[in-house]
Amino acid sequence: MKRLLLAAALLVAATTPAAAEPRKITLEEAIDLATQGNIQIELGKETVIAGEAKVRGTKKLRLPTLGIAGNVLLWNEPIEIAFAPGAPPETLREQVTMSFEVNVAQPITAAILLGTLLDAQKAEVSASRAELDVTRLDVAYQTAQAYLQVLQLKTLQEIAQSSITQLEANLKQATALKEAGILFDVDLLRIEAQLAAVRQQMLEAENGAETARRGLALLVGLPDGTDLELASVDTTPPPLPWTEDDAVARARQQRPEVRAADARITQAEQGVKLVKGEYLPMLNAIGNYTHTEGQGAFAIEDSAFVGLALDWNLWDWGNRRGKLDEAKAYTRIARKSRDFLDDQVALDVRSKWLAATTQRKTLDVAESGLKAAEEAHRLQNVRFAEGAGTTTDVIDAESEVARARSQATIARYQYLISWMALVRAVGELPDMPRSK
Q: What are the structural domain ranges in the chain?
């Protein structure tokens, strides 16, 4: 019987799927995953591919075009006619006819305008590439921000657990003091109430960390339900890489948004030239070979010609003028948008630089307050152990040190996020702190 039970247990163990191991991931890996599989980036890549394909197709317009046309027709009856009384009839058209022709055309005027069209299309591709870089930077920053927020919540969870451990020790000590007649039931109840409150905070931090972790998994493109184990990062506050004015100057030079705006100006300017080209006569060199059958004895079976074809729209009631005004308006829009972008970039960088600077000062204040709170907490625990302190003093000291630890943790991670936001505003991918 025991052997049967053992065999059954082994069988159940073998058929029960093992719990999936959490996927370990570093900050650098998370950014790589996000920038490779993000749907917005994939769409941006396809836009660039489409633009490059359009450029390749336009280049082929320099070459002559070759076209073939033909038909086979079955008529209700042939056409025959006798040219003299009693003479046999001549066939002017057989009941079945066939024609076949080959046309060759070499654009001349259009070839002159082809360079302008190519410049416009290449500018569009450049703008698409720059916009793709914008998306890549945004996704990288969002991923880094989400990653650090998960670690921040995890650290707050650890702080709550540390407070629980300390309060449990205090409760044990208070129980001993109560048995010695030094404390009363109300003192124990105060500690138990505080312990319950901190446990509630612990659960909230745990729930927040899990929610943030799942959001990060979605952001980097992992399947729903993927359990992530995040590697910690070095939270030593890195110094700001630039002064405020240096950061603005760098951003104006290398922000992909600036490159996109410059490309849009070029595209609009080439659009004006293309509309002006519509005023020119369209001249094409053409060639034709035609073969016909079934057209009768008087038809020429094979014929060919070469020549020039001219198409010149001399008057269109102002249609081209309207298109030209429209193209010029888009050019002015592109230029004004570019000028305004300079101011937007400067404001964005300066605000990010100020936020990072302020956050660094906040971190210094929070860490200074933490040192004072930890020392007060230590002294209060010594007094309580000696029976000189009250439970209210202990609870206040524990609450204060937990609050100071939380504030210091939040300030440290928020400075890293602000630092990364500044680097993004300058137009660079952050050189992330190394994962431990």
A: 22-63+108-278+318-426, 65-88+101-107+281-312
pLDDT tens digits along 198-245: 899 889 888 988 898 988 988 888 888 888 899 999 889 999 989 999
345: number of CA atoms within 13 Å, CB side? 26
Give Cα 53 distance to the centre of its chain: 22
Q: What are phi and psi of 244, to 5 degrees?
A: -60, -50
Asked if 163 contacts 205 with a C-beta cutoff of 8 angstroms, the reply is no
pLDDT in tens, 85-128: 777 888 888 889 999 999 999 999 888 889 999 999 999 999 99
Cβ-based neighbours of 355, under 8 Å, separated by 6 or more: 418, 421, 422
CB atoms within 10 A of CB 345: 20
- Please choose, from the candidates 137, 41, 129, the residue with its C-alpha nearest in 3D space to the C-alpha of residue 421: 137
Annotate 82-138 with DSSP letters as a single string: -SSTTSPPEEEE-SEEEEEEEEEEEESHHHHHHHHHHHHHHHHHHHHHHHHHHHHHH
CATH assignment of 22-63+108-278+318-426, given 1.10.1060.10, 2.60.40.1730, 1.20.1600.10, 3.40.50.300? 1.20.1600.10
pLDDT of residue 328 exceeding 90, the answer is yes
The DSSP bridge pattern shows strands 228-230 and 23-25 to be: parallel
pLDDT in tens, 235-287: 899 999 899 999 999 999 999 999 999 999 999 999 999 999 999 999 999 99
